[in-house]
Design brief:
The chain has 368 residues and is of the alpha/beta class. The protein is globular and about 60 Å long. 41% of the residues lie in helices and 12% in strands. The model has no long low-confidence stretch (mean pLDDT 93).
Length: 368
């Protein structure tokens, strides 16, 4: 059994219709619950909930402060490679795009790492394109072993791997893995991923199962907002989270909300989501689940991040570069997507301080 077996029990169109059929009474019922379920979540992400955004924001902010206090964890991505064997139509790293390809050497990785250390970070997210030969398990193991002495937490957002490989990476010091399904619409998934290993919908969908079996401390989920009906994709993300929390209860979980950004391929979103609707999604997730970590990246504008982080968010990236070598090596390789919030980490920390929040640069140490 895996989440693939669970997903087969649900029909995309029926789920979509049931979300859009929710009424004002359904929203009020959800807001009055002390513990919401997935049916309540449908109401909170439905069009009927739009007039209740202020109530949702207040409930979400209170729940977040009760569980996490006034703190925001800061992290930064380190792009190790933009080589990729997939051809995702929405991604600048697609092998179909004629761009300069770069995979950092050990010396270059250390230069990047030292530049990031000088910015104050202790939490590092390693990112690569998906290429088994250039940036596969062996390369990633070497990078983690190289960087582990310098950082308190190392997370990855890379190609899916086997349970055994995840176990070895965990033993080397890997803290968290973020893997996004992009869309839960199985039929249309192949249109966005026409070639490469990522074209296998089931293998990617079952990656969090393999992470849970490998005992990874934290597992990050999300869908790429803009591919399919975002309300339906968001609900399936919540279904996935619910399944994982019940099945692999030893792990912690994180949800991200990536919106499509301009990139080399020029792909345009099929279904846009407004700032108010994205805030509605963030609040709905917090009301549904008071334990899950919610992350907001530099894909979003400074104005949006400054106003929204208090209403449910627990982690933010800062000072991000989305090309290999972007911090110190300056290879001029193409970035994966355009960053919207280009403020420095210190500017983000100052913004948080002005709003009476604490920026958390390090919250975890390994003693054993």
């Amino acid at each position: 059994m895996s989440f693939f077996d669970t997903l087969k029990q649900y029909d995309w169109e029926q789920i979509k219709d049931s979300i859009y059929a929710k009424t004002e009474q359904d929203v009020l019922h959800a807001l009055n619950q002390t513990q919401c379920g997935l049916e309540d979540f449908k109401a909170l992400i439905s069009p009927a909930a739009a007039p209740f955004l202020e109530q949702m924001a207040q409930k979400s902010m209170l729940a977040t402060q009760q569980r996490f206090g006034k703190t925001i964890q800061l992290y930064v991505p380190l792009y190790l490679s933009n080589t990729c064997s997939n051809s995702c139509v929405y991604c600048g790293f697609s092998h179909q795009n004629k761009i300069e390809r770069v995979t950092l050497s050990e010396d270059q990785i250390l230069k990047e790492a030292m530049a990031i250390k000088q910015m104050g970070f202790e939490h590092l997210l390693l990112v690569t394109g998906e290429h088994q030969k250039e940036a596969g398990f062996t390369y990633l193991m070497g990078a983690i072993e190289l960087l582990r002495p310098h950082f308190a937490q190392i997370s990855v957002e890379v190609q899916p791997m086997s349970t055994e490989e995840y176990q070895q990476l965990r033993q080397a010091g890997l803290h968290a893995v973020y893997v996004y399904q992009e869309t839960y619409h199985q039929e249309n998934y192949k249109n966005y991923h026409p070639a490469g290993k990522k074209a296998n919908f089931q293998y990617r969908l079952e990656t969090p199962d393999r992470l849970g079996k490998a005992g990874i401390h934290k597992i990050g989920l999300g869908c790429l907002i803009g591919l399919e009906d975002w309300r339906s994709d968001i609900w399936h993300t919540a279904l996935h989270l619910s399944y994982l929390e019940k099945t692999y209860w030893q792990s912690r979980y994180s949800i991200s909300f990536p919106r499509l950004r301009p990139n080399a391929g020029g792909f345009q979103p099929n279904m846009a989501i407004s700032d108010r609707e994205l805030l509605q999604v963030i609040c709905a997730f917090r009301i549904l689940n008071q334990e899950v970590e919610l992350s907001l990246s530099t894909r979003e504008s400074p104005t949006f991040r400054d106003h929204v982080f208090k209403l449910g968010i627990t982690a933010m990236s800062a000072g991000s570069k989305t090309e290999p070598g972007g911090y110190a090596v300056h290879t001029k390789a193409l970035e994966q997507f355009e960053v919207s919030d280009q403020r420095s980490p210190q500017e983000i920390e100052s913004m948080l301080h002005e709003k009476k929040y604490e920026a958390v640069w390090k919250d975890w140490d390994r003693y054993m």
